[in-house]
From TrEMBL:
S-adenosyl-L-methionine binds at residues 43, 68, 95, 117. This is tRNA (guanine-N(7)-)-methyltransferase. It comes from [Lactobacillus] rogosae. The gene is trmB. The lineage of its organism: Bacteria, Bacillati, Bacillota, Clostridia, Lachnospirales. Pfam families: Methyltransf_4. It comes from the Bacteria.
Length: 212
């Protein structure tokens, strides 16, 4: 994602009631944050947040937490949430490397990864959100019946991810190389910003779902 520094974005994040900027140590507190026992779905690398904000509006009985590394990107989602005030939506500004300091054992019901950064160099493979190192982190916080859903148009990253699911000892429950042509898997699909951009350019969208 091309990054434009937005002056004041950091300050907005620190003061906004829907954003956590120092989330380390929040393990076990999420029921309290939302004031209910509803399932928790998270999106890691949410960008400007269209996907998670749409889902939160559609599903008031699910709590959503969007995670994004950069304030300048997150700002758009926060401005939208300031208008909508969805009670079931929060954001965290953080690098997901430390995700196990934020969500405790069995605290999360679903993890969405959409158009994650590819980190093309081999020596950076462990930074990919679908690497075995990240699946080990997800294993700790995801409920037994929980799942990871991943979409991308990047075939190299997708092929890597399919291998990593197996390498991590997870099951590949669903796998398509052309989501938008797959009537069953595409039902109810909510497009992300990148998904719209790349499918408009004619790129097929790959999707996998993994569980244990
Ligand atoms: C290519 S964009 C995709 C945005 C959005 N998910 C979509 O599909 O439109 C990837 C986003 O993930 C964020 N990101 C990448 N690695 C991250 C990490 N380790 N922790 C948190 N956010 C991350 C980037 O800052 C960027 O905003």
């Amino acid at each position: 994602m091309r990054l434009r520094n937005v002056p004041g974005a950091r300050e907005v994040m620190v003061e906004n009631e829907y954003v956590f900027t120092e989330p380390e140590g929040m393990c076990g507190t999420w029921k309290e944050v939302f004031g209910n026992d509803n399932p928790i779905h998270i999106e890691i690398g949410m960008g400007k947040g269209t996907f998670i904000t749409t889902l939160a509006g559609m599903n008031p009985d699910i709590n959503y937490v969007g995670i994004e590394k950069y304030s300048s990107v997150l700002l758009r989602a926060v401005e939208k949430q300031d208008e909508l005030q969805l009670p079931n939506l929060r954001f965290i500004r953080m690098d997901a490397e430390n995700i196990n300091e934020v969500f405790g054992v069995d605290e999360v019901d679903r993890i969405y990864l959409n158009f994650s950064d590819p980190w093309p160099k081999d020596r950076h493979a462990k930074r990919r959100l679908t690497s075995r190192q990240f699946f080990a982190r997800y294993d700790k916080m995801l409920k037994k019946e929980g799942r990871v859903e991943f979409k991308t148009d990047n075939r190299v990253l997708f092929d890597f991810s399919v291998e990593e699911v197996k390498e991590a000892g997870w099951n590949l429950v669903e796998c398509t190389y052309d989501l938008h042509s797959d009537e069953r898997l595409n039902e109810g699909n909510v497009m992300t910003e990148y998904e719209k951009k790349f499918s408009d350019m004619g790129n097929p969208i790959c999707k996998l779902i993994a569980d244990r």
